[in-house]
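Section 3.1: Structural characterization of target chains.
Under the original work plan, the team committed to producing a structural model for every single-chain target entering the pipeline before any wet-lab resources were allocated. The record below documents one such target. The sequence was received from the expression subgroup and is listed exactly as submitted; it comprises 258 residues.
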Amino acid sequence: MKISFVIPAYNEEAIIAKCLESIQQELARGNYDAEVVVVNNASTDRTKEIALTFSGVRVVDQPVKGLVHARKAGFDATSGELVANVDADVILTPGWMDKVLKGFADSGLVALSGPFIYYDLSASSRVLVKIFYGIGYGTHLFNHYVLGIGAMLQGGNFVIRRDVWEKAGGFDTSIAFYGEDTDVAKRLSKVGTVKWTFALPVYTSGRRIKAEGLVRMSIKYTLNYLWITYFGRPFSSKYIDIRPKNYAKKSHQKITKE
């Protein structure tokens, strides 16, 4: 199966190279049929120029700013049977591709996702994140298997089947940011299997958690997950862009293995 990587990027000149390097390194591990598209989402920095220095990477311009607008533009510009939605600050873990292709060997699987490992957070914060994931997964199991609603996906680390997502209506651009992954999971779970697995992690930055605080972010993500699941709309309509000026230096620090 061909897999299309879609990477939304708004002013990500400090970190987009690390993401693309990790994808190219992962693709070099095997003979994969893949394409990589960066969606330049109204950037005013060198995001587009940096992305174009990578062999085989295409850049699609989406002047309408917004995460879901960017995901949709990337989806429309690609052709793979599978579409991997990867955030610009994500670094793939070794073996990620093989796990994805093995998972989608099951024809009933329509979406696959896994957690983030925040490589630049303290050890204690990473433990708290794991606890939050555990609570979230437990809530998902209750909602899905007891109440029969919803599913769980991690925005920035999820893969979907193109044909099924098209039939499900595609991305809802009325959602600005929070809850977009839950909306995808909820709608796809009605037509096939949506699988969350801790065996498919990726590394990512903890910049939003650092900026807004772990407790505040946990509450915000929880509320939006519940609102989308139960009411079909996000709890939060606004979000802030986190692009620290000194992140270029931080992004090159050593990743803590887990």
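The chain has one domain: 3-238.
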